[in-house]
Amino acid sequence: MHSQISPPQIPNSLIIKSPLLATNPKVASPPKTPSLPAQKPNSDDGGTVLLERRTLRTEPPQMYQVVLLNDDYTPMEFVVLVLQEFFNKDRETATQIMLKIHLDGKGVCGVYSKDIAATKVDQVTESALKNGHPLQCVSEPVQ
Ligand code: TYC
C-alpha cells in the first residue's frame, strides 16, 4: 500500500485574476485578430465564407540619437566629462567618442526614446552654458 501526496487545492475564492495578466499581450494573450464584419453567404458560393486572418502588429517607437557637434573652443576634458556624466560612458569610451567628434565634426552619444533624448540635449546644453562653453548638442530621428 502506498500513500499519494496530492498538491494542495486552492479554492477559487482565493485566486486573484490580475488585470496585468489579462491585458498585457506579452504575458497572457496571443496577438489579437481584428473582428471581421458579419458576412451573409453568397447564394452561389455553396455557403462557403472565406475568413482572412490578420495579426495586429505594433510598430516599434521612433528612436532618437543624441549628437554632439565639434567646435574650436570647448575643452576636450569637458566633453569627456559630459559623455561620462550624461551618457554613462566609461572614461575610455568617452575619450574615444570625444576624439571621433573632434576629427569628424560630430558623433553619436546615445540612442533614446524621444523624451529621454530631448532631456539629454537640455542637460548637456544647460551644463555647457553654465560652464561658458559653446558645445552644441542635438537630437535626430534614427534612419
Ligand atoms: N575641438 C575641441 C578642441 O579641440 C574639442 C571638442 C570635442 C569640442 C568634441 C566639442 O563636441 C566636441 N578643444
Task: Describe how the helices and strands are arranged.
Layout (H helix, E strand, L loop, with lengths): L18 H5 L40 E6 L6 H12 L3 H14 L1 E7 L1 H17 L5 E6 L2
Helix pairs in contact: 2-3
The structure holds L-tyrosinamide.
The sequence of SSEs as H and E is HEHHEHE
Structural class: alpha+beta
* Stretches with pLDDT under 50, minimum 5 residues: 1-5, 14-32
Bound molecules: L-tyrosinamide
> Could you tell me the number of beta strands?
3
Q: Gyration radius, to the nearest Å?
A: 29 Å
Percent helix, as a range, is: 25-40%
Separate helix tally? 4
- Measured distance between first and last alpha carbons: 71 Å
Q: Return the average pLDDT rounded to an integer.
A: 81
Kindly report the spatial arrangement of strands forming the biggest sheet. Answer: 2-1-3
Strand content: 5-15%
Describe, in short, the structure shown.
The chain has 143 residues and is an alpha+beta fold. 34% of the residues lie in helices and 13% in strands.
